[in-house]
Specification:
alpha/beta, 21 helices, about 20% strand, seven-stranded mixed β-sheet, five-stranded antiparallel β-sheet, about 40% helix
């Protein structure tokens, strides 16, 4: 810990040092092609030659920690670079290097009169490492771009140093779990008994997670304490949900149509579909006053009301942030309901965290992203009334897994206790004190804080190595829905063949074949263990 504090102190002290500018005015080809990260200039030249030579396998070694998981691995093959691009890069003139507060640097290269490259570098572990590339329009504009972004980049670099430092001593963590851990089902039921709203931050299409929730649902304590289940499905379909649950006969086609109304290609989470059916089945055994109401919260394009491109454009112009829509629906429902029982909100964990870092993949067109639904609900209902749970997930982004939270340290702790399902509180725990890094994109934002700043409870269900692949609802892709997907694609200008990696006419057989080849019989996180 002392080492981490001293590193952070150096990083923060660096912010008091003024920027320096060094004139270079030499072409890239005037410098030798060597792998040298000792100075900002040498590191910038190294990065330029990696591009010229297509050396994909060296980018991780040349890049800052906060960037590495996005980059090709050390066994990546070289990239073919055409001669025209090579010549353009080699003839580029390195105009100057700016060093900002001894920690961030920008190497400005004139590629041509309209295209200036700004190679951004950070000082980490005694080396100058790549943080990315920006573009400028001329030398003065390039300087302005660099200086405008340098303070935020420096903050991210300082946060990166904190995130990068991981303990190797598991004893305190193992002891905490052994002393305070409980069965996930009992943990969730206790939270649902004590908090008006429990937010279950999940990872989509995860069968083991839905199995856990189903065991909670069918426990006799659940209908005694919970009256509403909020879900991340289109809120404009609420009348269809009400119709489904009011039906005396199980009509799965109503539910399938709801799943088809999500996004352009439908929502293929079989676990959620089965869970919603299980709520219907449970309700058949309950008295009216104990039945569970399902409330949809998400803001999605209302496809059945969009008939022309003009309809779609008007919808986009008047759209609101998905997180805000979820928070609005839940707040209004809770504040107006007459049922005194508590509520459960099942939502992707990227919409659940509490820190004041804006959410991702949710903003309406032309709008800045709002806080997550979880953060907004804590603000509106108070932290005493909202309990937010995170399940153990890979470290990643909305696009997929990139690595392990805390670089695999949490996984090691769970392995030491026998990888048994366990749940525990994060506040006042060693887990809670760790820098939050489950979401790679937000991990390096200095506002993020710790795991306890973002979630109240933590659930481990099974080792990532053992997890089966995505649980897919193939039933949504009917011949009729394929035609509807084609109609939506025209409105949204969406290319299904590009999405699927196929050619020719779109058919349900084609989609199902692609999905089965991608998922069936495979472990979900196999790439993390290769």
């Amino acid at each position: 810990m002392k080492k981490l504090i001293s590193i952070l102190a150096i990083c923060c002290l660096a912010t008091t040092v003024k920027a320096q500018s060094i004139t270079i005015d030499k072409q890239l080809k005037d410098f030798p092609d060597t792998f040298d990260l000792t100075t900002p200039l040498n590191a910038g030249i190294t990065c330029s030659y990696l591009i010229v030579n297509g050396k994909e396998n060296l980018w991780r070694e040349a890049s800052a920690f906060m960037l590495r998981e996005y980059l090709p691995k050390s066994n990546a093959p070289d990239k073919t670079v055409n001669e025209a691009s090579k010549t353009m890069m080699l003839n580029g003139t390195i105009k100057e290097v700016i060093v900002y507060k001894d920690s961030i640097a920008g190497m400005i290269t004139e590629i041509d009169s309209a295209y200036y490259s700004i190679r951004v570098l950070g000082f980490e572990d005694g080396k100058w490492l790549n943080i990315g590339e920006d573009l400028g329009r001329g030398l003065e504009n390039s300087r302005e771009v660099f200086y405008a972004k340098a303070p935020n980049i420096l903050n991210r670099l300082c946060r990166s140093i904190e995130v990068k430092s991981v303990s190797t001593d598991t004893l305190m963590f193992v002891n905490y779990v052994n002393q305070h851990g409980v069965e996930p089902k009992d943990f969730l039921l206790e939270a649902l008994a004590n908090y008006p709203l429990v937010i279950y931050g999940e990872l989509h299409r995860r069968k083991i997670s839905w199995d856990c929730l189903t065991s909670v649902l069918y426990d006799p304590r659940f209908p005694e304490k919970v009256g509403i289940v909020f879900v991340e499905l289109p809120s404009y379909q609420q009348t269809e949900f009400d119709k489904f649950y009011a039906s005396k006969e199980l009509d799965t086609e109503i539910l399938l149509e709801i799943m088809r109304s999500e996004q352009i290609y439908g929502w293929w989470d079989r676990g959620e579909y089965e869970f919603l059916i299980n709520i219907w089945k449970l309700n058949q055994t309950l008295t009216v006053d104990k039945q569970i109401k399902v409330v949809a919260t998400d803001k999605q394009a209302p496809w059945k009301f969009l008939h022309t491109s003009e309809d779609f454009e008007k919808h986009e112009e008047n759209d609101i942030d998905r997180n805000t829509n979820m928070a609005n629906v839940i707040e209004q429902t809770i504040k107006t309901k007459t049922d005194t029982r508590n509520s459960l909100f099942i939502v992707g964990y990227g919409h659940a965290y509490k820190s004041h870092v804006p959410g991702g993949s949710s903003a309406a067109r032309g709008q800045d992203p709002a806080l997550t639904a979880g953060a907004q609900l804590v603000q509106r209902l108070s932290s005493e009334n909202v309990f937010v749970v995170l399940q153990h997930v890979p470290m990643g982004t909305n696009s997929g897994a990139l690595g392990f939270m805390r670089q695999g340290f949490f996984d090691t702790v769970f392995e030491k206790i026998g990888n048994k399902p366990i749940a525990f509180h994060l506040v006042d725990s060693p887990f809670g004190a760790e820098p939050f890094d489950a979401d790679y994109q937000m991990s390096f934002d200095s506002r993020v804080g710790t795991f306890a700043d973002n979630f109240d409870g933590y659930i481990f269900l099974q080792p990532l190595r053992d997890e089966e692949s995505d649980y897919i609802l193939y039933d949504i892709w009917s011949d009729q829905f394929i035609e509807e997907m084609k109609r939506r694609a025209i409105l949204y200008d969406f290319d299904f063949n590009r999405w699927l990696g196929t050619e020719g006419e779109l058919t349900k057989e084609k989609i199902i074949t692609v999905f089965k080849e991608k998922y069936e019989g495979k472990k979900r996180w196999i790439q993390l263990f290769e």
